[in-house]
Amino acid sequence: MGWRSLRNGTKATIVNVIFPALILAAGCSGPRTPVTYAMPSVEASRVLVVVNSRSELSLEIGNYYLAKRGIPASNLCTISVAPTEEVVVASYKQDIENPIRQKLTGLNRPIDYIVFTKGIPFRMNNKGLSIDAAVAGMDIKDLESAAKDPNAGFLPNPYYGKTEPFTHEKFGMYLVTRLDGYTIDDVKKLIEQSIKAYKVDGTFLIDEADDRKTGDYGTFQESFSEGVMKLRDKKFQVIHDQKREFASPSDALIGYASWGSNDRQFRPEMYRKLKFAPGAIAETFVSTSARTFKPTSGGQSLIADLIHQGVTGVKGYCSEPYLFAMANPSILFDRYTDGYNLAESFYMASPVIKWKDIIIGDPICRPFKK
Fold it and tell me: Mean pLDDT over residues 308-319, rounded?
């Protein structure tokens, strides 16, 4: 894979038991209506949910997610940080990483997954690094580097390419995802889509770009064909679009990969027509697809649009990651349809950590469970 820039085109069961509100903070009393809680599971007990006491959106989403997934109340980590999209490195360390470390130390159970909620910053202003990716690798030391700044650059992902279930104990990192989108309704829909996800005969759309056939881009795009072959071998329906036009089928998708706005045939109106079935995951090879989760216009295509349109999981980048950091679609969809959960599948497909990556979705969503 190449290192080139992508910028500017070059680059459950439910039980009717009502618990008290789990999230309490000054100025926030939790949800206004009772929440129906799910039966706890072993996997749910391994999820730490992080909420921001200074964001009512974060508190409400955290409470909603804990209820829907049956995550123990003790797995709630409350931090206090400015509810902005970007913070300085010092604030990240003091207000986000340190409280999470303290919470993890105090728990008497293993944690493998960490979930951030809307209203928690996702980017550091030092080189535009992802907060989520930094937390994922916060226990991994760079054995080669003498650099004093632990956020100076990416590290190899020890879980990349694996074909085994994840544990923090074995791999030394965490699988970090985020519940975010334009609105709280978008985020709740994303959670609901995860809960409703089940094995369906959905369609995968792998959309190649006519201007990505040479050099590093061409090498990377070859992985599209490999992914298509794997899915077809498993008898899945796949649209492998190699035409010049930007594809947007009318059927709901279970998997999607494209170059987004880096495709010179990109049409925003077609991108916003994409539809997704419960459990659907996606990757778009766009440098700044997760630069914001606020409604905006102009610039490169955003994964927030796909969340609004019903995708259950999607990977994006908060600033230029370069091509080498993108999730390999031949691994991503193969692992997901093999029965691994959403977080495992995205991290198995992603070569680096402590970089620019942001993964949206409920980490334990698993529609193809064997």
Answer: 97
CA dist 170 to 102, 174, 188, 350, 369, Å? 21, 10, 32, 18, 22
Residue ranges of the alpha helices (H) in the chain? 56-69, 89-91, 98-106, 131-136, 168-171, 184-196, 215-233, 268-271, 303-308, 329-337, 342-348
- Residue 157 structure tokens: 């992902």
> 155-156 and 352-353: which strand pairing?
antiparallel
Which CATH architecture fits 199-360? 3-Layer(aba) Sandwich (3.40)
Which stretches of 260-352 are DSSP H helices? 268-271, 303-308, 329-337, 342-348
The residues spanned by each domain of the chain are 17-179, 199-360
Edge to edge, the sheet with strand 253-258 lists: 76-79, 47-52, 113-117, 175-179, 357-360, 313-317, 276-284, 253-258, 203-207, 237-241
- Could you tell me whether strands 253-258 and 313-317 are parallel, antiparallel, or unpaired per DSSP bridges? unpaired
Cβ–Cβ under 8 Å, residues 337 and 370: no
Intra-chain end-to-end CA distance of the chain, in Å: 32
pLDDT in tens, 75-134: 999 999 999 999 999 999 999 999 999 999 999 899 999 999 999 999 998 779 999 999
User: CB within 8 A of 84, min separation 6: which ones?
Assistant: 121
pTM: 0.89
Per residue in 194-219, pLDDT (tens digit) is: 999 988 778 999 998 888 888 889 98
